[in-house]
C-alpha cells in the first residue's frame, strides 16, 4: 500500500533522513521504533506532506506522492494522529471530529462515522460539547484517534500514541488500535515504548540517526539480542 | 461638565468604536489564519469608502445600497492581493514571515496612498445624502441616523460573521486553521485557499467600515494609516488572534477616546497609545486573550 | 556583511571614503551654486535618516514603522531650544536625547515581546505624535528676524556632511564589532541567540538608542536648516517611508546600501519635482515590494550578482 524508496529529508541545512526505504502492506500494522530524535517523526511528516523529500520516491496505492499537497494526501486516504494530539483546543469535541471529516468522502458518511467513533470511545459522546483543550490526556488521545478516523482513511499513521499516558491507558489505546486494524485500516505507528509496539505490530523498522538499521517480523525482533539490550533492557515507566 | 455632555460624548465614541471594531475584526481574522499582519488594512478600508463615493457621485446609488457591491469589489481585490503579495510569504519561518508581511503591507499602503491621491485628489470627500442630517433623540441624547446605523450595521455584520464561523463547515475550518494550521492541513483543509478567502473577507469587512466612514464621516487619501493604527491598537487590546474580543475592544477604544476629549482635548490620540503601552507592559496577551506562555 | 567584503576590500574602502569626504568638504569652496549645495544636503539628510533606521532595522532586525517620530522629536526640541536662545549644539544634542527618551518608552515594553508589537508601537507613536502636534501646534515654526539675517547655508552644509559621515561610520563600526555580531544574531534567530547566552533584550535596546539618537540628530539638523515649516511636518510618516524605501532598495543590513539608495532617491526626487512630484515615491514603493519579495539584498545584492556574473564570464572566456 505504501512504498517509500530511498528518501532524503532535511530541515533547512540539517539533513535528518538518509536513504530511508520502507513498505507497508495492506491491512498490516507496522511500527517504527528507535531512540529520540532518530527521525521517526520526520518520516511521518514526510509521508503526510508537512516535509518534502529530496531524492527518492513515495508511492501510495501506486500513486507517486512526493510533490502532492498535504490536503490532497488526506483525500486519497492517509490520516495522521499527530504527536501531542494536535487537537484544536478552543473547539469542542464534536467540532474536532467534524474537522476530521472535512474531506468530501468524510462528509458524505459523517453521521455514520460519528456513531462508530462514539461506540469506540463512549466517553467522547458524553463530552461532545466540551472544549478539546479541557479534556484529560487519555481523552485527548481518544479524540485525536477518533478525529483521524473521520476521514475514513485507508492508512492511519500514529505518532507516539502512548505518549504521556499511564500504562493502563496505553494498553487500552493499543487495544483500540488493534480493533481499528481489524476493521480494515492499515496502520503505521511510531512508538517509544518498544515492547507495547512490537506486541501489536506485524513488522517493525528500527530507525537510528536518520537511517533504517534493522527491520523484520516483530516477534523475531522481540527476541533479538541487540534490541532487547538497546530498547527493552530497562523496563521503567 | 454635566452628565449629558459626558453621555453624548460616550455615545459618539461607541458609534465610531463599532467601526474600529469592524476594521479590527477583519485584521484579527487575517492574522489568526495567516499569522501575518497587513498594515495596509486601513487602505483597504479607504478603498471601500472611495468605491462608495464613486457609486454615489457617478451613478447616484445610495451608499447603503452600494455597500454590498463595494464590499464585493474589495473581496476580489483582497483575493488578488493575497495571491500576488502575501501567498509567497506563507511558507516562511514565523519571525521572518511576520517581518516581511509588515514590509509588504507597508509598501502596499504607500502605493495605495499615492494611487488615491492620483485618482481622487488629496481633498477630503464625503457622501452627502438627503438623510445625512437626520437623527432622533432618546433620553435627551442625540442619535444621528447615519452614525447609529453604522453601529447597527457593524453589529449585524459581526453577528453574521460569528454564525459563519460557528455554523458552516468552511467557517469552522477557518477557526481550525487559526488554532493549529498543521493539524488543519492534516484534516484535508486547503490552507492556501482558506488563507486567501480569509484575507478577502478581511478586506470586505474593512470595505464595509469604509462605506460607513464615507457617509457618516469623511474620507481622504491619508486616512489609511490612521485606521490601520486604530485597528492594530484594538487587536492588541483584545489579544492577537482573538476575533470575537476585537469588536468589543473596538467599541471600548472608541468610547474611551471620545470621553477623554472632554478631559485632555487635543491630546486624545495619546490615550490610545497609553492604553496600548499599558496592555503591553501589564497584560501582553490582551484583555481577552489567554496567557502568553 | 561578508558580501560587501567581496565587493570592496577594507583598505580600498577607507581610501575611497576619505577621497570622497575630502571632495565633498571642498564643494562649498568650489561652487557658489546653492541648488547643488541643497541637493547634496538632501542626500546627506537621507543618508542619515536611512542609516539610522538601518542600524535598528537592518542590523538588529527590529522593524520600526515610526522613524518619523524620532526625527520629529529631534526637530521640535532643537527648534524650540535654539529659538529660545540656547546654543545650537546644546539644542542639537538634547534633541537626540529627547528622541531616545521616547524610544525607550515604546521599546521597554515592546522589545521584550515579538517584533510585531514594536512595529505597531512605533507606528502608533509616529502617528499619534503627528496628530497631537498638529492639534496643539498647528502653526508654522518661524525663525526670528535676526536668525534669518544671519542665516548661512555653508555651516548647515557641513553639519549635514558630518552627520552623514558619522552615521555611516557608526554603521561601519557596528558591523565590524562584537556589538554588531550580537545584533545580527538577534536578527537571524532570536531564540537561538538567547539559547547561546546573548542578552537579546539588551542588544535590541542598544540598537534602539543608537538608531533613534541619530534620527533625532537628523531632525535637529532639519530644524536648523529650514527657515520655516509646519511644526508637524517632520512627524509626517513620509520620513518613515523615505527611510525604509531608501534602506531596502539600496540594500538593508549593508553599509553602502542606504548611501546608494539615498543618492538615487534624492536625484529622482529632484528630477521629477516639476513633472511628477511623487513619482520617486511610487517608483521606490514598487521597487520596495520587489525587493522584499525577490531581492532581499537590494541594489547592493544586485550589484554583487552582476559582478559575480561578469567574473564568471571572464573566467569562462579566458580558458
Key words describing this protein structure:
heterotrimer; A: 237 residues; alpha/beta; Rossmann fold; 6-stranded mixed sheet; 4-stranded antiparallel sheet; 11 helices; 40% helix; globular; B: 293 residues; mainly alpha; two-stranded antiparallel sheet; 2 strands; 75% helix
Polypeptide structure, described:
The complex is a heterotrimer of chains A (237), B (293) and C (319). Chain A has one domain: Rossmann fold (3-Layer(aba) Sandwich). Helices cover 40% and strands 25% of the residues of chain A. The model of chain A has no long low-confidence stretch (mean pLDDT 88). Chain B has one domain. Helix content of chain B is 75%, strand content 3%. Chain B has a two-stranded antiparallel sheet. In chain B, strand 1 and strand 2 form a beta hairpin. In chain B, helix 1 packs antiparallel against helix 10, helix 2 packs parallel to helix 4 and helix 5 packs across helix 6. The relative contact order of chain B is 0.21. The mean pLDDT of chain B is 89. Chain C has 319 residues and is an all-alpha fold. Chain C has a single domain, classed as ABC transporter involved in vitamin B12 uptake, BtuC. Chain C has 15 helices and two strands. In chain C, strands 1-2 form a two-stranded antiparallel ribbon. In chain C, helix 3 runs antiparallel to helix 11 and helix 12 crosses helix 14. The longest helix of chain C has 26 residues. The interface between B and C is large, with 39 and 41 residues.
Q: What is the average of the pLDDT values of chain C?
A: 88
What is the N-to-C order of secondary-structure elements of chain B (H for helix, E for strand)?
A: HHHHEEHHHHHHH
In order across it, which strands form the biggest sheet of chain C? 1-2
* Corresponding CATH architecture of chain C: Orthogonal Bundle
Shape of chain B: globular
Total number of beta strands of chain C: 2
N/C terminus separation of chain C: 31 Å
Strand order of the largest sheet of chain B: 1-2
- pLDDT under 50 segments of chain C (min length 5)? none
**Fraction in beta strands of chain C:** under 5%
The helix content of chain C is over 70%
Count of separate DSSP helical elements of chain C: 15
Q: Summarize the main sheet of chain C.
A: 2 strands, antiparallel
Amino- and carboxy-terminal Cα gap of chain B: 45 Å
How many β-strands of chain B, per DSSP? 2
> How does the helix and strand content of chain C classify structurally?
mainly alpha
Seen as an oligomer or otherwise, the chain set is heterotrimer
Q: Using the coordinates shown, work out and report the CATH topology of chain C.
A: ABC transporter involved in vitamin B12 uptake, BtuC
Greatest interface (CB-CB under 8 A), with counts per chain: B-C, 39 and 41 residues
Please state the overall shape of chain C, judged from the principal axes of the Cα atoms. globular
Amino acid at each position: 500500500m505504501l512504498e517509500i524508496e530511498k528518501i532524503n529529508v532535511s530541515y533547512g541545512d540539517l539533513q535528518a533522513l538518509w536513504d530511508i526505504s520502507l513498505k507497508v502492506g495492506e491491512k498490516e500494522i507496522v511500527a517504527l521504533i528507535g531512540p529520540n530524535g532518530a527521525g521517526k517523526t520526520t518520516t511521518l511528516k514526510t509521508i503526510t506532506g508537512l516535509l518534502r523529500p529530496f531524492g527518492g520516491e513515495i508511492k501510495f496505492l501506486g500513486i507517486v506522492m512526493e510533490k502532492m499537497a498535504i490536503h490532497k494526501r488526506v483525500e486519497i486516504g492517509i490520516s495522521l494522529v499527530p504527536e501531542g494530539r494536535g487537537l484544536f483546543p478552543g473547539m469542542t469535541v464534536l467540532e474536532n471530529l467534524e474537522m476530521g471529516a472535512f474531506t468530501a468522502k468524510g462528509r458524505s458518511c459523517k453521521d455514520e462515522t460519528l456513531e462508530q467513533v462514539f461506540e469506540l470511545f463512549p466517553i467522547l459522546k458524553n463530552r461532545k460539547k466540551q472544549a478539546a483543550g479541557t479534556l484529560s490526556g487519555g481523552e485527548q488521545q481518544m479524540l485525536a484517534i477518533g478525529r483521524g478516523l473521520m476521514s475514513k482513511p485507508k492508512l492511519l499513521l500514529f505518532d507516539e500514541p502512548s505518549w504521556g499516558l499511564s500504562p493502563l491507558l496505553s494498553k487500552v489505546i493499543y487495544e483500540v488500535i488493534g480493533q481499528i486494524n481489524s476493521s480494515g485500516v492499515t496502520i503505521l505507528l511510531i512508538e517509544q515504548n518498544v515492547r507495547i509496539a512490537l506486541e501489536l505490530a506485524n513488522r517493525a523498522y528500527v530507525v537510528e540517526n536518520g537511517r533504517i538499521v534493522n527491520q523484520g517480523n516483530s516477534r523475531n525482533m522481540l527476541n533479538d539480542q541487540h534490541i532487547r539490550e538497546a530498547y527493552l533492557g530497562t523496563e521503567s515507566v | 461638565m454635566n452628565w449629558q455632555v459626558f453621555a453624548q460624548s460616550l455615545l459618539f465614541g461607541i458609534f465610531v468604536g463599532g467601526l474600529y471594531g469592524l476594521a479590527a475584526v477583519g485584521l484579527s481574522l487575517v492574522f489568526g489564519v495567516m499569522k501575518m499582519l497587513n498594515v495596509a488594512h486601513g487602505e483597504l478600508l479607504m478603498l471601500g469608502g472611495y468605491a462608495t463615493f464613486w457609486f454615489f457621485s457617478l451613478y447616484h446609488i445610495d451608499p447603503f445600497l452600494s455597500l454590498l457591491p463595494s464590499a464585493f469589489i474589495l473581496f476580489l481585490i483582497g483575493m488578488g492581493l493575497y495571491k500576488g503579495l502575501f501567498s509567497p510569504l506563507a511558507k516562511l519561518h514565523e519571525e521572518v514571515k511576520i517581518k516581511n508581511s509588515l514590509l509588504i503591507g507597508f509598501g502596499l499602503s504607500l502605493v495605495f496612498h499615492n494611487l488615491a491621491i492620483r485618482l481622487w485628489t488629496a481633498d477630503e470627500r464625503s457622501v452627502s445624502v438627503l438623510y445625512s442630517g437626520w437623527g432622533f433623540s432618546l433620553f435627551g441624547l442625540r442619535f444621528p441616523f447615519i452614525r447609529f446605523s453604522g453601529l447597527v450595521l457593524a453589529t449585524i455584520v459581526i453577528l453574521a460573521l460569528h454564525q459563519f464561523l460557528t455554523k458552516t463547515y468552511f467557517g469552522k475550518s477557518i477557526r481550525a486553521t487559526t488554532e493549529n494550521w498543521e493539524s488543519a492541513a492534516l484534516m484535508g483543509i486547503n490552507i492556501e485557499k482558506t488563507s486567501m478567502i480569509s484575507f478577502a473577507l478581511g478586506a470586505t469587512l474593512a470595505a464595509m467600515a469604509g462605506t460607513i466612514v464615507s457617509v457618516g464621516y469623511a474620507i481622504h487619501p491619508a486616512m489609511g494609516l490612521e485606521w490601520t493604527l486604530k485597528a492594530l491598537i484594538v487587536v492588541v487590546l483584545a489579544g492577537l488572534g482573538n476575533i470575537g474580543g476585537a469588536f468589543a475592544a473596538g467599541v471600548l477604544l472608541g468610547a474611551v477616546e471620545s470621553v477623554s476629549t472632554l478631559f485632555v482635548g487635543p491630546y486624545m490620540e495619546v490615550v490610545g497609545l497609553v492604553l496600548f503601552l499599558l496592555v503591553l507592559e501589564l497584560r501582553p496577551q490582551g484583555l481577552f486573550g489567554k496567557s502568553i506562555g | 556583511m561578508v558580501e560587501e567584503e567581496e565587493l570592496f576590500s577594507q583598505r580600498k574602502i577607507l581610501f575611497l571614503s576619505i577621497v570622497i569626504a575630502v571632495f565633498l568638504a571642498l564643494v562649498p569652496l568650489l561652487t557658489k551654486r546653492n541648488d547643488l549645495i541643497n541637493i547634496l544636503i538632501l542626500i546627506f539628510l537621507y543618508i542619515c535618516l536611512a542609516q539610522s533606521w538601518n542600524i535598528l532595522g537592518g542590523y538588529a532586525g527590529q522593524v520600526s514603522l515610526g522613524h518619523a517620530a524620532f526625527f520629529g522629536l529631534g526637530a521640535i526640541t532643537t527648534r524650540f531650544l535654539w529659538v529660545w536662545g540656547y546654543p545650537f549644539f546644546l539644542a542639537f544634542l538634547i534633541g537626540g536625547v529627547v528622541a531616545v527618551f521616547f524610544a525607550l518608552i515604546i521599546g521597554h515594553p515592546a522589545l521584550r515581546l515579538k517584533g510585531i508589537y514594536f512595529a505597531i508601537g512605533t507606528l502608533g507613536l509616529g502617528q499619534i505624535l503627528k496628530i497631537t502636534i498638529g492639534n496643539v501646534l498647528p502653526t508654522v515654526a518661524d525663525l526670528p528676524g535676526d536668525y534669518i539675517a544671519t542665516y548661512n547655508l555653508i555651516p548647515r552644509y557641513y553639519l549635514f556632511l558630518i552627520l552623514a559621515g558619522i552615521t555611516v561610520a557608526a554603521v561601519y563600526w557596528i558591523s565590524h564589532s562584537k556589538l554588531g555580531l550580537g545584533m545580527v544574531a538577534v536578527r537571524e534567530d532570536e531564540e537561538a541567540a538567547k539559547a547561546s547566552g546573548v542578552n537579546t533584550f539588551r542588544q535590541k535596546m542598544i540598537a534602539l538608542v543608537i538608531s533613534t539618537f541619530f534620527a533625532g540628530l537628523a531632525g535637529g539638523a532639519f530644524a536648523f536648516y529650514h527657515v520655516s515649516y509646519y511644526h508637524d511636518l517632520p512627524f509626517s510618516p513620509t520620513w518613515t517611508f523615505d527611510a525604509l524605501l531608501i534602506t531596502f532598495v539600496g540594500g538593508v543590513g549593508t553599509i553602502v546600501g542606504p548611501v546608494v539608495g539615498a543618492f538615487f532617491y534624492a536625484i529622482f526626487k529632484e528630477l521629477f519635482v516639476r513633472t511628477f512630484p511623487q513619482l520617486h515615491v511610487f517608483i521606490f514603493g514598487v521597487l520596495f515590494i520587489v525587493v522584499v519579495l525577490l531581492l532581499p539584498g537590494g541594489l547592493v545584492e544586485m550589484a554583487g550578482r552582476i559582478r559575480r556574473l561578469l567574473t564568471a564570464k571572464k573566467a569562462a572566456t579566458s580558458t
